[in-house]
TrEMBL record:
Name of protein: tRNA threonylcarbamoyladenosine biosynthesis protein TsaE
A Gene Ontology term for the protein's cellular component: cytoplasm
Pfam families: TsaE
Principal localisation: cytoplasm
Domain of life: Bacteria
Keyword annotations from UniProtKB, A to Z: ATP-binding, Cytoplasm, Magnesium, Metal-binding, Nucleotide-binding, tRNA processing
Subcellular location: Cytoplasm
InterPro entries xref list: P-loop_NTPase, T6A_TsaE
PANTHER family given in the database record: TRNA THREONYLCARBAMOYLADENOSINE BIOSYNTHESIS PROTEIN TSAE (PTHR33540:SF2)
One GO BP: tRNA threonylcarbamoyladenosine modification
Keyword flag tRNA processing: yes
Gene name of the record: tsaE
GO MF term set: ATP binding; metal ion binding
Length: 152
């Protein structure tokens, strides 16, 4: 497993920003980790890297928020999802066809459906190791890309 340590929210945002430079349209990013691990902070970095200026907040009640930048960002928060199949009720398949990147907070909840549908994704797991310290693990389920290697 490949990970990078950050010691402040700003460093996590910066890392998200750097990841954004490696993304292409159609990429799906699954963010996982406990409450307050930094998933939204990381997404904010991705948004900044895509030249999206408006503040990124978690779309908890709407499930998905769309931001326009160099590429569109579709920010999902699946915390309240009851059944993984519900992801399709949100129009997930249509979002996959859009130009842009999909970021899914609590995305590990739908890992199995993505695997079944053979949808590639980049997995980012944020682990709280201290008040201001996070270990951020990267995993990419395609052999052609090694995101962590590119980020290091
Ligand atoms: N190294 C760090 N990286 C990210 N956030 C940090 C770090 N150190 C401290 N923090 C704090 O941790 C919190 C992270 O909040 P954030 O909303 O990004 O988490 P989250 O994983 O999206 O939570 P939720 O599951 O509730 O959506 C913020 O209050 C932030 O200031
Ligand atoms: Mg969040």
């Amino acid at each position: 497993m490949n990970y990078i340590c950050t010691n402040s929210p700003e460093e996590t945002i910066e890392l998200g920003k750097r990841l954004a430079t490696l993304l292409k349209s159609g990429d799906v990013i699954l963010l996982s980790g406990d409450l307050g691990a930094g998933k939204t902070a990381f997404t904010k970095g991705i948004a900044l890297g895509l030249d999206i200026e408006d503040y990124v907040k978690s779309p908890t009640f709407t499930y998905v928020l769309e931001y326009k930048g160099k590429m569109s960002l579709y920010h999902f928060d699946l915390y309240r999802l009851q059944d993984i199949e519900e992801i399709y009720d949100l129009g997930f398949e249509e979002y996959l066809q859009c130009d842009g990147v999909l970021v899914l907070e609590w995305g590990d909840r739908v890992k199995e459906v993505l695997k079944e549908d053979e949808i590639d994704y980049i997995s980012v797991f944020l682990e709280k190791v201290g008040e201001k310290n996070r270990k951020i693990y990267f995993d990419c389920n395609t052999k052609e890309r090694n995101i962590a290697k590119e980020l290091l």
